[in-house]
Structure formats: structure tokens, C-alpha cells
Design brief:
By secondary structure, the chain is mostly beta strands. It is 10% helix and 42% strand. It folds into two domains: 73 residues, no CATH class; 82 residues, no CATH class.
Length: 161
């Protein structure tokens, strides 16, 4: 319960866009979104069974130096590779989504196998239903925000198939 209280204090305080996950959560993915002067961060407990009573993941979105605009916790996370172009010989696109009600907030990363140490580009997407995220149809999101490639932080081991 103390961790939840700490998160509430952290999330309500005015913070710069550079958010950080509160332990025991770790950054699964984070990036700056230049078009919105915003930052999105996806935080996850990598071993949820070691922390009973805590949600597996949480999401934050903040604009500039203002307070966090959106924060939610969830135990519903999803994975997708539907955006991988199977005709492209070197790219692999993966997405991890965090559910909030019927909506899914997701980060989508594209890696190039010729550069194995780096995510080439990433986006933050919002889907209006879990099915829109999990089905095989592409371009079903209601919002797509492009990340600044230089700002991407990702726990690549936790987002690979």
C-alpha cells in the first residue's frame, strides 16, 4: 500500500516531462513525443508474483513540465507483432499494450536486424478496444504519436517475442 501512496504523490506533483518508474516497477519503454512536447512511459514489474497486491504495470503521459496528464495501473498487458512487414528482410515490429478499460495504450517499436543494439523508431498508439490491438488488422489505432528516436529507452528483453 505504501508503494501505491508513493505513486499517487509522485503522479500528482508537477513534474518535468522526464518521468521515471517508481520501484519495484521498471521502465519497459519511454520516449519523448516532440509534436506534443510530451513524454510517455510504460512501467512494469518484471516479476509480478514477487509483489502481490501491486498491479503489474502502469502508464504515464505528461506534457512539458506540467503535472502528469494521464496515469493508470493495469494487470492487463498484451503483445503483438501484427505491424511487422513480412516482406521486409531486416525489420521486426513489436507492440506491447497496457489496457485501461476497453482502451489499449501501446508502444510500437521497430528494430533493424542489421543494427541489433538499437530500436530504429517507435510510436505510442491508442486503440479503442482490446480487439483493435490484438487482431491482425493494421492501422486500427485511434491515435498515433511518433517518438523522438534519440529519446527512446526500452527494456528490449521484455518486448521481444
Amino acid at each position: 500500500m505504501k508503494a501505491c501512496g508513493l505513486i499517487a504523490v509522485v503522479m500528482l506533483a508537477p513534474l518535468p516531462a522526464a518521468a521515471n518508474c517508481v520501484p519495484p516497477w521498471q521502465t519497459q519503454f519511454a520516449c519523448e513525443i516532440p509534436a506534443r512536447n510530451a513524454r510517455a512511459e510504460f512501467c512494469r514489474i518484471m516479476e509480478p508474483t514477487a509483489h502481490p497486491g501491486l498491479k503489474e504495470a502502469y502508464y504515464t503521459y505528461a506534457i512539458g513540465a506540467g503535472p502528469t496528464e494521464l496515469y493508470f495501473e493495469t494487470d492487463q498487458t498484451y503483445f503483438s507483432t501484427k505491424d511487422t512487414d513480412i516482406d521486409h528482410p531486416t525489420d521486426m515490429t513489436m507492440a506491447v499494450g497496457y489496457a485501461r478499460g476497453t482502451y489499449v495504450y501501446a508502444f510500437v517499436t521497430t528494430e533493424d536486424s542489421r543494427d541489433p543494439d538499437r530500436i530504429r523508431d517507435a510510436e505510442v498508439r491508442v486503440y479503442s478496444t482490446i480487439d483493435a490491438f490484438t487482431n491482425e488488422d493494421k492501422d486500427t489505432e485511434v491515435l498515433r504519436l511518433y517518438c523522438d528516436a534519440a529519446s527512446i529507452r526500452a527494456n528490449r528483453d521484455s518486448i521481444r517475442p
